[in-house]
Amino acid sequence: MAVVSAAVVATAQPATAEGPLFVSVFIETPGPRGAVAVIGDSVMLGSAYEAPLVAGWGPSLARMLADRGWGPVHMAAGVGFQAGKFVANNPGANMSLWLATQRAAGFDPPVIVVSIGPNDIIACSGN
Hints:
Layout lengths: L1 E2 L4 E6 L8 E6 L6 E7 L1 H4 L15 H7 L2 E9 L16 H10 L6 E5 L2 H6 L4
Parallel strand pairs: 4-5, 4-6
Antiparallel strand pairs: 1-2, 2-3, 3-5
């Protein structure tokens, strides 16, 4: 885990046999626009990196949202993440589970930003 500042905690986990590449950014500073969660699959992954976490990257989308008055901001993105609860063999790649975990911990924002690629759109079957 890398601490970016007193208000920002960013983590990155490399892809392994046990799970996908996963990046999360938590900015706990309240903002006048209110709390927001940002979740996504590999389409969103590059937007999750903070400059100190990966040299030459940043700021993260979470940082840009916080700079524009949102907060707290909780963001998670990962390779292979899926939007629904249909990832039986890889629960770590489940955005719905991540949101449920955030809610159980007391973070239940009124705004949730979701970025998914074509693999999730196809699985939604028009619903």
